[in-house]
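Entry 14. Structure prediction run on the chain below.
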Amino acid sequence: MRELIQSFKYGDRHEGVPLFGRWMAAAGAELLADADVILPVPLYRSRLWSRRFNQSAMLAQAVGHLTGVPVDCFLLARVKRTHAQGGLTAAQRRKNVAGAFRMTAAKGALRQKRIVVVDDVITTGATAEACARVLQRAGAARVDILALARAVEPSSMLL
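Output returned:
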C-alpha cells in the first residue's frame, strides 16, 4: 500500500485514483451521507506547480463523483509555504502548518455546513487539524476528515 500511495503522491502515477476513490467513498459513507461539500487539502502554489497536480483534489473529485457530494477545490487555500512534513515531530508539524490555511469565500459561506476534508495521508493529524480549525472558525457545523491512508509512526509500533 505504501508503494502505491507514494507512487501516486510523488511519482505522477494516477491510475489508482478510481480505486482509491471507491475505497474512500465506502470507508467514509457515514460521513458523506449528509455532507454538504467536500474540500481537498490545498497545496501551496509552488508545490502544486512542481507536482503538477494536487493528489488530495484528485481523491476528492473521485469521491464526489461517486457520492454526488459537491467538491470545491478553491474554498480553502494554503497561503503559507510550509516545509514537507516528512521527518518532523508532531509538535514541529503543528508549528509548520500553523496559519497555513485561509478561507477564500465570503464570511458566512460555510455557516452550518457539514464539510468533509479529503487528504491523502494522515500521520499526526496536524494538517487536518489546521484545516478544521479554519473551517470551524468560518462557522462550519461539522468538519470530518477522510484520508486514503493513515501513516503509523515506527516508534508507535514498538511492543
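The first strand starts at residue 37 and ends at 40.
Filed with the rest of this week's runs.
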